[in-house]
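Ticket #4471: structure output looks truncated?

Reporter: J.K.
Steps to reproduce: submitted the chain below (298 residues) through the standard prediction queue, then opened the result file.
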Amino acid sequence: MLMNRLTTSEIYEWCSIPWQELEDRDDLKCKLAVRKDRAEMMEEIGNLMADEVKEHNAQGLPTKWVLPAGPCDEYDTFIRRVNEERIDCKNLWVFHMDEFLDWQSRPYPVADTYESLEGTMLACFYNRIDEELRPPEDHRIWPRMSDLDYADRMCDELGGVDTVWAGIGATGLVAFDEEPRNFCYRPTVEEYADSRTRVVVINSDTMVAMAERSFGTCLDRVPPMGLTIGFHIICSAKRAVYMVATGDWKKTVCRVLLFSDPTTEYPVTILPKYIPDVTLYTTEYTIDHPMSHDQKGW
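Returned output as attached by the reporter:
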């Protein structure tokens, strides 16, 4: 399959639809769940997470997830329920999406810092779960420079993933799986869907977005490289739940996900082709595109 490039007219058309009309359309590529605000949305998703572990435990089944190191506020509800209801997470397997690398492709020390996503997850997720309920360390699958095939191999051995819980970047990244922009290689959608754990140079627009959000657009503060799982793991999932409540940054990518055919230009559009149950959770503000209002100049 040749790479599908989106046209300006397509994007304008998708962005011009009033958000109130979206949920009733029958041409969406995935399910859409619009909630009033971020707090309501994240609480619901945290409950979905807790319910899935409880259901699998009751059936004697493992739970296999892909988890992000951001957004993290859905973990508040999940962890509260785990600790209060004594939900055993010893049979929870977690494939972590990515990790930052410095400009020489070296990992940062594990610590509760921006540069260390493993340290972030220890602080915001694992260490907040009561010790007797936590997933064991060998169930926490991180992409590692020492064995790039490890995460993919474990995914295959476990028979794939149950649920991907993820945010989406403004240009459709999932983990650090971004649009390939090097003219020397042009993977097809099928090749991208089978992509493996790898080292990546983070696209410049993603670095600008991360720098603006956290560091007053100080680009020097954002690590320039990353280690990411590929879509081989992500596309093995039975379900994907996307959490997008970042407002202005994400208004267009939400429309692209809802309407676009698979394209490496916006990698998130590839996933509904391979994952049978995909839901975009978002907020009224985020899904309300300014181009759906009567404006001049566009």
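Triage note (M.O.): checked the attachment and the full token line is present. The domain at 30-285 is CATH 3.40.50.1360 (Rossmann fold).
Status: closed, working as intended.
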